[in-house]
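Troubleshooting log. The previous run stalled partway through. Resubmitting the same two chains, unchanged.
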Amino acid sequence: MLISVAEAEKIIARHARSWGTEQVPLEQSWGCILREDLRADRDFPPFDRVTMDGIAIRFERFAAGQRRFPVAGVQAAGAAPLPLADPAHCLEVMTGAMLPEGADTVIRYEDLRLENGEAEILVEGIHFRQNLHFQGMDRRQGELLVPAGRQIAAPEIATAATIGKSSLLVARRPRIAIVSTGDELVGVGETPLPHQIRRSNAYALQAMLAEKFQLAGHLFHFADDKLQIADGLRDILARFDLVVLSGAVSAGKFDFVPEVLDELGVEKCFHQVAQRPGKPFWFGHFQQQAVVFALPGNPVSTFLCAWRYLVPFLRQSMGQEEQAPLLAVLSEDVVFKPPLSYFLPVKLSTTPTGIRLATPVPGHGSGDLANLNDADGFLELPKGQDVYPAGTAFPLIPYR
Amino acid sequence: MLISVAEAEKIIARHARSWGTEQVPLEQSWGCILREDLRADRDFPPFDRVTMDGIAIRFERFAAGQRRFPVAGVQAAGAAPLPLADPAHCLEVMTGAMLPEGADTVIRYEDLRLENGEAEILVEGIHFRQNLHFQGMDRRQGELLVPAGRQIAAPEIATAATIGKSSLLVARRPRIAIVSTGDELVGVGETPLPHQIRRSNAYALQAMLAEKFQLAGHLFHFADDKLQIADGLRDILARFDLVVLSGAVSAGKFDFVPEVLDELGVEKCFHQVAQRPGKPFWFGHFQQQAVVFALPGNPVSTFLCAWRYLVPFLRQSMGQEEQAPLLAVLSEDVVFKPPLSYFLPVKLSTTPTGIRLATPVPGHGSGDLANLNDADGFLELPKGQDVYPAGTAFPLIPYR
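Second attempt completed without errors. Output:
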């Protein structure tokens, strides 16, 4: 009944699904997953490009001993190209300009004296074709610049702008419902009674999806009332691609979520994973329509399960390219004896030798929300050992 | 005239300034810099909280040998507390519920048999006060949960929700103008002539500010026309807190930016830094009003300077807490002889022993925009050596 973290991950991966694609304006596309290849619309650079302000000459004249070149004109960036008609002359050229036809070498102003319409070259170390960025040197027309599957960041946006894409084809972002349950929870604007607390998990989930993928999550809350949960979820399952619940999945008398999901026709894939925190995690799907992550309601459990399972599921569903696994090294021995994978909150730093170090911030377990503020991620300590020795590298889930 | 990277950094830091504060709705606050301390509004947890579904008993009865406890009622999460009136009885209790008065120990359902209104304890290893998360165990009322200066992420949002903050005081985000210049640049929607290219730097800067801090940058473009640049910048300097220019700061005949800034009364702090790429970087300020970063227009130069100088400036200005320095280890020897700091594009990975490894993706210099897509950051190789040996750790500027 209790499955391993790896098994849970595998089952969830089988339910990854595409939600199609959408066009988004270039300026708003960061964080989205690109669903088209970006290819060079022409050579990069598109012409033999001057990379220093100075003069353009024909190198053979320099090699033959000529040092003074009458200036025949100025070639600005963005101007149609001038020819260097007389190879004994030079043209002033600006960074970003096209190399004038007939010239092949650029000498920067710092190495010149310009006087009376003549440029005198003051240095000897001039190389044929220097200070030029030749057409097609970086990429050839048609060549792949960014593959589909990339999460879009600033370099990809600059690249897309360069090839003339004012909108990009990205993975359609799923409609996500974030559902908290629990009679003990009141709204942020309310004053809780002594036995109540305010809702917080739904906000954490919403923020995480927004900052990670620019995804919008719609918030719902239901009391521990079977009928209310059933009515609410029936409606949600029909309208959303992804339903993330928090709470009411454990063994309690008012933990109606698994039962209600079953009655509504949501097929259970698993319930309970051999891990701490987050053991009561429930996962299922509703026909071909909605996928349901029912996360344990303790704040650290919700948060960890979302990072460990929901984020990879979203990546796969939206077609993001494989991520290199991250590892960090334990700074001290950790003892953990239950036969469970242990997700340890850690603070990250770098040692002077470049090792990513993880210092435990263990706190007081799955209810200790405040502890998450002091940590940067979770280290995944696999089940099957009692002592996790200092100096060993383990998989890392950073959340900042 | 040529100053070092460290000097440039120091001068810029002296011009860091607060732009005041603003209230933002909790849901939109991620990425902003918190400008108030978040303190516990009551104890965390606010009551002795049950952490397992099961029964609550008085431990002394168990210790005295009692194993069967009549169930006197159910204590749900979110319900006002019931008392355990008779210490020979038990109450069913749910995760998140308040511990009933008179009870002190919780036994989970898995360790019980419940039959005919009686709970029989099936295991012997019961500990006094087990399965409880005691009032104030995590944090005491008034205790600091999140210090001002934190960049807000999901844990801080959950914490703020818990203490009843539906909006947060954050650093006011500066009004930012992003100004590109250059006759060779046409719009994204236009078809460039053979000697033209499309604008891209402004989009990269805008995306970077948005994904990093949720900052909005307003885009402007001016041709290489002194009057146009002067008129445009005069207006911009009066309306914006921060002006980021790209291009026209080098030694070219049409590099009007330094001259125009001077004429408009912008005081130059430095021009040119001993680094590659980005050497022509110009920095100044306009009275007490606007700070001006005039970045070299080559795409890699603009991008590197923004990450290396603009991001730390924004962090300091908005009062973000100190960041632990990041280091990565070179995977191979790199030779670079000019007396300049060299910012090397690198691809990041983790070795099996947890070392953050940086593999050079050197590309073709400051014009090679496409190269940025294949890298994850820059390694800062300090000036003063010719060979940077494999296995050495250097400061890292990651941009993903």
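Takeaways: Chain A touches chain B through 118 residues (CB under 8 Å). The radius of gyration of chain A is 30 Å.
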